[in-house]
Design goal:
Radius of gyration: 20 Å
Largest sheet: 9 strands, mixed
Distance between the termini: 49 Å
CATH superfamily of the largest domain: Ribonuclease Z/Hydroxyacylglutathione hydrolase-like
Number of strands: 22
Strand content: 25-35%
Structural class: alpha/beta
CATH architecture of the largest domain: 4-Layer Sandwich
Number of domains: 2
Length: about 400
């Protein structure tokens, strides 16, 4: 335990099952109990609801069960992992943004789409990623954004997509901006975008899962996604649809965010690593599954051979199946080959340059790249052109637009 207050009470008689209490960052902690079954989860759920906690969202994936509930300024996110026989209970302050959990989740009249935005890839290290969903209510969901210089490309792309249906364009509304992890090639954009274009758009919410400092090795300095940085350098520039300052929310495994006629399901966060010390932000990625326009997307960000085996051990393979898959870590090192046949995608979003794609393909050690290339019906790189896929997607109809 790292001094983080823990408000979760283990059911009476099960105190000896506590495996540990872990610091999740931002004042949240996780209690893990082993040798549990689904009846333990049901008992915990019944107990906290009887105490007056209100359900925000519930979810089930195979044998796994998930519940987020709140009482005043308190939050409890508890879930049961069937394969591991574990109860994991995250407690902390109530930062829930109700607009992200619209239970009715009405479908609007706008045809949804997914756009992979190109990166400039001028950096020697490559990297960078931005995926944009246009939702049926005409608003947008943005994943990451890329380097800081990509802020201008993002704004231009949003403007173009905002009038893609030929109607007079209204204000740009980003219902949710999701940051997968702390590397600057994924988070740099939001800082510059907020500073330059913050007054030109509406942002309903920013969400991510920031790790604890203790979970990073001491020599890891670049901490770009910290809650402190986002709160001080991004949120002051943004306003939501009511004119209030945009809020930041910490997401947890198993939560299903529903808005704009779409679903964004959190499959894995660093919390599931149970505070093992890692050397790289790529091992702290939040992995999500998106369902937009009836089309499914597996979005790994830079998750690789640390997180993905753990995810696959805890989430049944049938639930991983998606039509689109974003290739992890730009196709570069630290990939995890078994993920790709498990997802079984037809279409692959490959966020990297032509140069690095061919480098990766020629590297014999990168067997995951070879699998993707051999099995993709369509594969798209994120250099020079944006690719927009109207949803539901028909093979061969991607719209190609030169941007860079």
């Amino acid at each position: 335990m790292n001094g983080t207050e823990n408000a979760f009470t283990v059911p009476k008689g099960r105190e000896d099952r506590v495996k540990g209490v872990y610091d999740c960052g931002d004042g949240y902690s996780m209690t893990v109990c082993s040798s549990c079954d689904i009846s333990d989860f049901s008992e915990i759920k019944e107990k906290y609801l009887s105490l007056g906690y209100e359900t925000v969202c519930e979810n089930a994936i195979g044998k796994n069960r998930y519940l987020t509930c709140v009482l005043g300024d308190k939050l409890l996110h508890v879930y049961y992992i069937g394969e591991a026989g574990e109860i994991r209970a995250v407690t902390g302050r109530n930062d829930i943004i109700p607009s992200l959990f619209d239970r009715e989740n009405p479908t609007g009249s706008v045809r949804p789409s997914c756009t992979m935005m190109p990166m400039s890839y001028t950096q020697a290290s490559g990297g960078g990623q931005c995926i944009i969903f246009r939702l049926t209510d005409g608003t947008f969901f943005v994943m990451d954004g890329g380097w800081s210089g990509e802020a201008y490309t993002l704004y231009d792309t949003l403007k173009s997509l905002n009038r893609a249906d030929g109607e007079a364009s209204g204000p740009i509304v980003i219902s949710g901006w999701f940051l997968s992890h702390g590397h600057i090639d994924h988070t740099g954009c939001i800082y510059k975008f907020a500073e330059v274009f913050g007054k030109e758009v509406t942002v309903g919410a920013v969400f991510c899962n920031d790790a604890s400092v203790e979970q990073m090795t001491p020599n890891y300095v670049s901490y770009y996604m910290s809650t402190k940085n986002l709160t001080e350098k991004v949120l002051p520039f943004f306003r939501d649809e009511n004119g209030n300052r945009t809020r930041l929310m910490k997401v947890h495994t198993g939560q299903k965010l529903t808005f704009g006629g779409a679903e964004f399901e959190v499959l894995f966060t660093h919390e599931d690593l149970l505070s093992i010390t890692v050397k790289n932000f790529n091992d702290l990625c939040t992995v999500i599954k998106a369902t937009v326009g009836g089309t499914t997307f597996f979005l790994t960000a830079d998750a690789s051979k640390v997180e993905l085996p753990a995810l696959m051990a805890e989430v049944e393979e049938a639930h991983l199946k998606c039509e689109f898959c974003q290739v992890g870590h730009h196709g570069a090192d630290r990939g995890y080959t078994p993920l790709y046949p498990a997802v079984g995608a037809k279409y692959y979003l490959y966020p990297n340059s032509y140069r690095d794609y061919h480098r990766d393909l020629e590297t014999n050690a990168y067997e995951w790249v070879k699998y993707v290339v051999d099995n993709a019906e369509e594969l798209y790189l994120a250099e020079e052109y944006s690719y927009t896929f109207d949803l539901p997607y028909t093979a061969g109809t991607a719209k190609k637009t030169r941007v860079i």
